[in-house]
Write a structure and sequence with these properties.
Largest sheet: 5 strands, mixed
CATH class: Mainly Beta
CATH superfamily: TolB, C-terminal domain
Oligomer: single chain
CATH architecture: 6 Propeller
CATH topology: Neuraminidase
Strand order of the largest sheet: 1-18-17-16-15
Order of helices and strands: EEEEEEEEEEEEEEHEEEEEEEEEEE
Structural class: mainly beta
Shape: globular
Number of helices: 1
Number of strands: 25
Length: about 350
């Protein structure tokens, strides 16, 4: 495999192992939060993701268009963008959102089925339509990528079906550079197939662009990586709770997470600011809906515990304002619900 980076330094450190759920009870502060229902929730069908960018709430709520945007300064304002399709200026479903910095009006979009990346300008201006052709769509990346982040002018970082945890790529290239960072819970052995699927979660770039958060949905695991230019990636902090409990696949040709019914989930949703990491923690198995929780754990970017937040009801997704002033959650109880919580 051709090398596309001059030098990559990998250093794993600060690994913390846990064998019980007690880790979410010993935070320096514990705060109970009461939220306010947002009336424009009624304009949604079903959300698959939410993201705050410059006081605009972006919701993945596919119908004819993939995304809806609400201006929080004007709750009656609703814009749609990303006509679903595979033609010019159309966006494939599913497509994930990457916020570019803290103040930028540009977001990155990664198509999970065509492995293409593009950028869209979402600046607040009700008289100007959002152009899905704002920045030309890239050529397809390697089809093994599941999650992909833009971390430099032409450098991308992601997770997927690789023999190790992370891989780098250059824009408009199908080649990858697999980094020497192993999957957790595997004794450092290279893995393929079902291991990556059982460790899927969120991949988020810190707004300042110098760190990456990687989480696991099916187990309480998160990792912080430092970025130094395009040539140096360091794993600076790893939190390992318990490993995902899986069972063998009946079909050897299939690749899936294949979780046991008793498997207890980890961090089901995440959001970051330049100050903090916010993790929605489940700790539940399939006997109780593991995709909902009211427990939110807050860390700094060194992995230090800051506080535990107890929401007034269970939610599915969270997103936090760039100034750490408020968060918005989503859950569906037969109808879509967006709730705002003040944090200061």
């Amino acid at each position: 495999m051709k090398k596309i980076f001059a030098f990559i330094l990998i250093l794993s450190s600060c690994t913390t192992s846990r064998d019980s759920e007690s880790f979410f009870n010993d935070f320096p502060k514990e705060i109970d939060l009461k939220g306010e229902y947002l009336g424009f929730s009624a304009k949604l069908n079903q959300a698959f993701d939410i993201e705050l960018a410059n006081n605009q709430l972006i919701v993945s709520d596919p119908d004819e268009f993939h995304f809806k945007i609400f201006n929080l300064d004007n709750s009656n304002s609703l814009r749609r963008f990303g006509k679903i399709g595979e033609g010019p200026c159309e966006i494939i479903f599913p497509t994930t959102i990457q916020k570019i910095g803290s103040e930028s009006n540009t977001i990155g979009l990664y198509g999970r089925k065509n492995w293409k990346y593009q950028e869209v300008d979402i600046k607040v201006d009700s008289d100007i339509a959002i152009d899905s052709c704002f920045n030309q769509t890239s050529k397809s990346f390697n089809f093994n990528y599941q999650k992909l982040l833009k971390i430099g002018d032409s450098t991308f970082f992601g997770t997927g079906i690789f023999d190790l945890k992370f891989a780098l790529a250059k824009a408009n290239s199908n080649e990858v550079e697999v980094l020497d960072i192993p999957y957790p819970f595997t004794d450092g052995n290279a893995q393929l197939g079902n291991i990556p699927m059982s460790q899927q979660g969120d991949l988020i770039l810190k707004p300042s662009g110098d760190k990456i958060l990687c989480t696991t949905k099916y187990a309480p695991y998160f990792e912080i990586l430092n970025i130094n230019g395009d040539t140096e990636i360091k794993s600076s902090y790893v939190f390992e709770g318990w490993a995902p409990e899986t069972k063998p696949n009946d079909d050897e040709k299939s690749i899936s997470s294949n979780l046991n019914q008793e498997n207890k989930f980890g961090f089901i949703s995440s959001s970051v600011t330049n100050n903090y990491i916010y993790l929605l923690f489940s700790g539940k198995d399939f006997s109780v809906d593991p995709y909902l929780s009211e427990i939110m754990l807050v860390y700094d970017w060194e992995g230090n515990k800051i506080k535990r937040l107890n929401l007034d009801h269970e939610v599915e997704f969270i997103t936090v304002s760039s100034d750490d002033d408020f968060l918005i959650s989503y859950h569906d109880d037969g109808k879509p619900n967006l709730t705002r919580y003040e944090l200061d």
